[in-house]
Amino acid sequence: MSMTLSMTAYEWLGVLGAALVALLTFIFWMGWLFLKQIEKWLDARFAAMEAVRSHASEQWRSSFMTLESRATDTERRLMQLLVDLPEQFERRDDAIRREVSILNRLDAVGEKVMKLLECDIRHCPIKEQSHG
Questions:
Q1: What is the separation of C-alpha 80 from the centre of its chain, rounded to a whole number of angstroms?
Q2: Position with higher pLDDT, 111 vs 127
Q3: Is residue 1 in some structural domain?
Q4: Can you give the residue range of the structural domain that contains 69?
Q5: Percent of the chain residues topping a pLDDT of 70
């Protein structure tokens, strides 16, 4: 007894169609799995990038706050220096004016001393100026 397999063309087309549908389903399912893996990989990568961005943002914020604090401190010290400057330091013009005034007073005292040295019992230029 021999068994022979005989199928009509429509039956062959049906089997071939079913195999094609099974193959396409398998390819679609593999593509779907591949896309899910890519999606997981991208999610992990974006999460890592977000963590790095957040850390870098925090560092920038910290650095900016430090710089802002230094700038505020420097501005405060500068304003205090502007307030203290007239009290602690003297302008060059004021120093020269004060020195000239002192020199003029010393010259006047020196002239009076010289006139006193010229004084004797009979003649005194200081007394003559005051009477004159």
A1: 23
A2: 111
A3: no
A4: 11-89
A5: 91
Q: Are 126 and 115 in contact (CB under 8 A)?
A: yes
Cα end-to-end span (Å), the chain = 173
Say which residues have a Cβ less than 8 Å from residue 98's Cβ, sequence separation at least 6.
90
Residue 18's pLDDT is what?
Answer: 96
- Is the domain of 41 the same as that of 58? yes
Q: Which residue has the higher pLDDT, 6 or 43?
A: 43
pLDDT at residue 68 above 90? yes
Read off the pTM.
Answer: 0.43
| Same-domain check for residues 39 and 82 | yes
**102 and 52 co-located in one domain:** no
